[in-house]
Amino acid sequence: MPKSKRRGGGGGGNSRGTAAGAQNRNVQPFSDEDASIETMSHCSGFSDPASFTEEGAEVDEEATQEDIEYKLKGFIDLTLDKSAKTRQSALEGLKNAMTSKILYEFILERRMTLTDSIERCIKKGKSDEQRAAAGLACLLCVQLGSGIESEEVFKTLAPILKKILSDGSASVQARQACATCLGVCCFIATDDITELYSTMECLENIFTKSYQKERNSNGISSTQNTVLHISALLAWTLLLTICPMNEVKKKLEMHLHKFPVLLSCDDVNMRIAAGETLALLFELARESDADFFYEDMEVLTQKLKALATDGNKHRAKVDKRKQRSVFRDVLRAVEEHDFPTETVKFGPERMYIDCWVKKQTYDAFKEILGSGMQCHLQSNELLRNVFELGPPLMLDEAALKTMKIPRFERHLYNSAAFKARTKARSKCRDKRADVGEVF
Questions:
Q1: Helix axes 32-43, 84-100, angle to 10 degrees
Q2: By CB atoms within 10 Å of each CB, which of 192, 201, 242, 248 scores lowest?
Q3: Cα 22 from Cα 389, distance rounded (Å)
Q4: What is the pLDDT of residues 338-368, one digit of tens each?
Q5: Residue range 162-176: average pLDDT?
Q6: What is the mean pLDDT of residues 251-273?
């Protein structure tokens, strides 16, 4: 049974105790505890994109939209609260909403307020609050698209993001979030080539420290710093995909011969990030020059083959499996100029990822949007322009329902597939058993 929407007190039975308590203490409208509880109750409504609508239920769209906007206004107000916990919860609530819904009109009217709140939280907040605020800044630009509004957001936030990223005394997690935010927001918003180069230089100053550390016999000393360097490298790689070709050539000369050093890093994620960046650099180099030649190709391919077939026992099985899968693709890119095409399905549409530039871009937005990626691919004009999907498809509810497979049919299909798979595996097991008995 749905809860009552009345905002009054808990009921008449406790009114005497409430009055007595009010005489002994002053109750402020938003104390830390009450505000946090109120915020968390709002946030839970955005925890799952499916929570907005239920399958088969009749929904009043106007009422639902009003309810969402009411919650979002509450979140925006709570980003100014005195309690750090309350501000962080409000930021997370806004992030969850922007991830799972297209809210362009609502955000457009309040972009200055949101930008001010984000800036204040990044400046005055601590690690977790700064991370949440930087993540919200990314989503704000994703919602607004590549126009003057996003450019204003980026111009306001870029100086403080660069300052924190370059501050060695700041939290590593906050610096990591700032690196990602700089990369994504600059990719979306900036038309100023000087600002693009400045942002890339700021990111280079972070991840190039791994070059010197990896040359040392002790390897990279700090795991936390490695995580920061990975975020800076991935953000830099994203921005490299939109650089003019003459700048790409300069970056190739600066970094291509240094990246193989990172393949020896102890951290599997750094090895993977370096490998994928190498594949992208080779792809861009061959686009700019069909006769591109890399001098140390033999040494590089030997390293890549070793990583693609790595069987070191001191490494975790999951890490080895992930690494081998990635480096098989990287080796194909370097040796055979090939890329294994991936298919992404969203609604009635499909997108083909057929090059490393597209893959790096997709991975960057997937990291920001998470489970909301499909929703944004369907309806967000920015992402549809980035991936050349054309204008959003206009489908009515009847068409969407016809494309949706009922839950019972999905269950029957999965059950049949499971039985068929079990039978096939049983036959294989029987054959192996027979072979064992022969020998």
A1: 10
A2: 201
A3: 60
A4: 898 999 999 889 999 999 999 999 999 999 9
A5: 95
A6: 92
Q: Three-state SS for 412?
A: helix
DSSP per-residue codes, 18-79: HHHHHHHSPPPTT-HHHHHHHHHHHHGGGS-GGGGS-TT----HHHHHHHHHHHHHHHHHHT
Whole-angstrom distance, CA of residue 332 vs CA of residue 330: 5
Beta-bridge mates of residue 351: 344
- Give, to the nearest 10 degrees, the angle between helix 148-166 and helix 172-189: 150
DSSP letter, residue 13: G
Are 79 and 117 within 8 A, CB to CB? yes
Q: Is residue 140 within 8 Å of residue 108, measured between CB atoms?
A: no
3-state secondary structure of 349: strand
Name the burial class of residue 381, with classes exposed (0-12), middle (13-18) and buried (19+) by CB atoms within 10 angstroms of its CB.
middle
Average pLDDT, the chain: 82
Locus of tokens 């936390």: 224
